[in-house]
Amino acid sequence: MRPEDVVRLLESAGAIRQGHFELSSGLHSATYVQCALILQHPQHAEQLGRALAAEFHDLRVDCVASPAIGGLILGHEVARAIPAYPGRPAARAVFVERDARGSLALRRGFEVEPGEHVLVVEDVWTTGGSTYETIRVIEEAGGRVVAAGALIDRSSGRLELPVRAEALVEIKVESYDSSDCPLCRSGMVAVRPGSRYLRVNP
User: Fold this and answer.
1) Which of 6, 37, 61, 169 has its CA 20 to 30 A from that of 44?
2) What structural domains and CATH numbers belong to the chain?
3) Cα gap 67→153, rounded to integer Å
4) Is the pLDDT of residue 90 over 50?
């Protein structure tokens, strides 16, 4: 898929919205990204998973690992789209999640074989922190992380990962402190679209 096709698909599902938003960080932005709104549709999730898997067609991938919860669906679809090679089982999908200490870890009986070639997949990169932590978890478990992929890179070029990184689309998202927000100065009222606010203010 071309980047412009990905953007159109995301916008059609409301996964990319324009307006005046107060993000969960407290910062304000004219753009809001929520990939769950596109990944809730299996046909679109499958299409995007295939497109992202194609970015790594030149690599051997035995397993796809994703940080919960954002990367779960996309990682599963990427693994499903990776072709099986003679003599090797089809790629599987695992995920890491927060443990009691708040650190990402392999749980639920998931294991990584020593030397297993792993692709780490996330829905959105902002700082890349969850992806970086997932890479660490997989490598500590004995896996070999060969690359990382995402649906959207909104890091504005600040992403620094120790492996090859590919995203289907790059989106520049400007954000502002509420005291210095041009949208506020123009008289636009900020809305709070994030799930964290929905839990607090149902």
Assistant:
1) 61
2) 1-34+172-202 (no CATH), 58-168 (3.40.50.2020)
3) 16
4) yes
